Amino acid sequence: MTTAPRPIPWIRRRGHAGLLVAALVLVATLWLLGAVLALLPEPIGNNAAQFAAGARMTLWLTLAAGTIGLMLGTLAALGRSSERAGPRAVAGAYLWIIRGTPLLVQILFFYFALPVLVPGWNLPDFAAAVVALAINVGAYNAEAIRAGLIAVPHSQRDAARALGMRPLQVQAHVVFPQAIRVALPPLANNVVALLKDSSLAFAIGVVELTNVGNRVQAATFQPLPTLAATACIYLLLTTWLTQAAGALEEHWDAPGRQSGHG
């Protein structure tokens, strides 16, 4: 009779290493991007600093909106899963409105229309873009997180309550650690989509990557190399995000894989 193999500690270390490598790659990419682009012929080389700044702005939009959107998605998922009719109705209305209207219209609404409805509420272009992007991605995150919550058996909640755990402790220590593993792949896809959707912020004047590419091609009358360079930078950023998401997923899965060895 063979004994069960012992847990493999390197799995957790590999998850940590993947996150560290992803962070280092991002720092190196942002640091070297301008220098690498400067080596290219016109119109890219002489506008390398603008492209690098646009890429950083795109990344800031993604990280800021993604962080807020994760919190909004969690609240909406809890609302949809609530036993009370009020939170379910509010969360349902939020998802219905946001998922049923175009993101570009939402961005324009928060920048142009909201100050009309709320006098004195004048958001800068960056803040308006972050708010609109966060509210939009939060609606899609909500369904992913809700699917993760549903995947956790109710028997585990009942067992945790029987052990004397409070509702908040049950959510924090029993439900969410398991739900996040189910929700992480679609959440990662939402973040990658968010990075690409952030290009719509150019409509309100945010000088992100697409805005920079459009300005350069309009000034130089060379759309092919300019837009090709813009697309390549987006591809570089989305590839980094995908790899970082993979490392994060591996990190979160590590305890589950270890416990599976018994």
Automatic annotation (TrEMBL):
Transport keyword on record: yes
InterPro entries, sorted: AA_ABC_transptr_permease_3TM (IPR010065), ArtM/GltK/GlnP/TcyL/YhdX-like (IPR043429), MetI-like (IPR000515), MetI-like_sf (IPR035906)
Superkingdom assignment: Bacteria
Gene Ontology BP, a term: amino acid transport
Keyword annotations of the record: Amino-acid transport, Cell membrane, Membrane, Transmembrane, Transmembrane helix, Transport
A cellular component annotation (GO) from this entry: ATP-binding cassette (ABC) transporter complex
Keyword ATP-binding: no
Pfam families, alphabetized: BPD_transp_1 (PF00528)
Residues covered by the ABC transmembrane type-1 domain: 55-245
Compartments in which it is found: Cell inner membrane; Cell membrane
Membrane topology qualifier: Multi-pass membrane protein
Function: Part of the binding-protein-dependent transport system for glutamine; probably responsible for the translocation of the substrate across the membrane.
Family, per entry: Belongs to the binding-protein-dependent transport system permease family. HisMQ subfamily.
Name of the protein in its database record: Amino acid ABC transporter permease
Organism lineage: Bacteria, Pseudomonadati, Pseudomonadota, Betaproteobacteria, Burkholderiales
